[in-house]
Amino acid sequence: MASNFDSIPLIDVSPLLSNPETINLDDPNVLQVVKKLHEACQNVGFFYVKGHGIPDTLVKGVRDAARNFFLLPHEEKMKIQLSASTGYRGYTKLLDNKTQGKADLHESIDAYTEFAPGTYGPMGEHFEGPNLWPEYPQGFKEMMDDYGNALEKLSKMIMRGVVLALRGSPNLFEGDRAGKSFWSMRLIGCPGSGSAAHPSAMGIGAHRDYGLLILVNQDDDITALEVLNRRDEWIPAVPVPGAFLCNIGDMLNIWSNGMYTATTHRVINSSSKYRVSIPFFYEPNFQAIVEPLEFYKQKTGGVSRFQKVVYAEYLLNKIRNNFVG
Ligand SMILES: N=C(N)NCCCC[C@H](N)C(=O)O
Ligand SMILES: O=C(O)CCC(=O)C(=O)O
Ligand SMILES: [Fe+2]
C-alpha cells in the first residue's frame, strides 16, 4: 500500500550496472541502491532512475520520432491502425482508448514483444503479428527496436536490484516467471489543454499498470503524470531530465502479496504544449502463473491478498476493456 509520500525518490542505479553478469554484493554502493529501492517500492511504488547508461540521443530520439509521427495527417496515421486483428499492435486515435469506461485524450502506437506464430498456443493468437511502425520518419522501426532491446536489458538489471530488495533468491524472476519477459511499449501523445476540443477529458484516467516494472521516458518540460498517495492526494511526477520514471505493476504487487505497491496514477496535460511520453512495460512471461509467494505472505500477515492469475489472461482482459464502448 502506498504511504503518505509527497515526493518521488531519485535513485542512481549505476552500481547495479557495473557488471552485466552479476551484482557485487560486497559493494556498499550496491547495498545503498538496494535499500533505496526497497523503501521506494514499499512506500511509493514510483522512483526516478538515473545513472542508467541509456544514451540521451536515443532517449530523446524516440520521443522526437514519436512527436513527428503524431504530426502526420490522420489518414497517414490510420494506415497502421491497431485492432484485435493486428494483435493489438499499432496506432489508436484520440479518445479511442478508454480507462474505467471514459475516453482518454491521447493517441498512441502500441507495441509488444514479437514472437513466432504458434509459440503460445490459442492464447498467443490474440497477440500475434508484427509491430506496426510508420515508414516515415525513415529508420523508425530500427530506432524503436534498439530502444526496446536497450530498455529490456536495463529493466532486467533494475529487477535484479528489486529482487535483492525483496530478499528473494537470485532466480526469483528468471525462468518461468519472467525469464522471457513479454514486454510492451507505448508511444503516447497528449494534446495540451489549450488546443483540446474536450476540456474535461484526461490524457489517461486513473489506473495501475499491469506487469512488473515500468520505465517512463517523458518530455522534460511538462508535468502531467500524477501519482496517488494514501491520503488520496495526487503528487505530480515532475520530469527529471535524463532520468526515467519507474513504477511497479500489478504482477509484482501480487507476487509480493502487496509488499511492493502498484500505485494508481493518471495523466493530465494542462499545459498548452503537446506532450510525448514512452512507457516501456517490463512484464512477466506470457504464460506466467502469478500468485502471492509464500515468503511474502509470511511477511504480510500470512494471508493471500490476491487470487492467482495467468499473466496473458490478465493482459488480454485489460486490453479488451481499453477498447470497449
Ligand atoms: N500496458 C499498460 N500498463 N497500459 C496502461 C494503460 C492504462 C490505461 C488503460 N486504458 C487502462 O485502463 O488500463
Ligand atoms: O504518459 C505517462 O507519463 C504515463 C503513461 C501511463 O501511465 C501508461 O501508459 O500506463
Ligand atoms: Fe500507467
Question: How many helices?
Answer: 10
Q: What are the secondary-structure elements, in order, as H or E?
A: EHHEHHEEEEHHHEEEEEEHEEEHEH
Task: Give the overall average pLDDT.
Answer: 95
In total, how many domains does the architecture comprise?
Answer: 1
CATH architectural name = Sandwich
Could you name the CATH topology? Answer: Jelly Rolls
Domain Fe2OG dioxygenase: 181-284
Organism: Tetracentron sinense (Spur-leaf)
Family: Belongs to the iron/ascorbate-dependent oxidoreductase family.
Keywords: Iron, Metal-binding, Oxidoreductase
Describe the model.
There is one protein chain. The chain is an alpha+beta fold and 325 residues long. The chain has a single domain (10-320), classed as B-lactam Antibiotic, Isopenicillin N Synthase, Chain (Jelly Rolls, Sandwich). The protein is 30% helix and 20% strand. It contains 10 helices and 16 strands. Helix 2 (28-43) crosses helix 6 (140-165) and helix 3 (56-70) packs across helix 6 (140-165). The mean pLDDT is 95. Bound molecules: L-homoarginine, 2-oxoglutaric acid and fe (ii) ion. 2-oxoglutaric acid (AKG) is lined by residues 186, 188, 204, 209, 216, 218, 225, 265, 267, 277, 279.
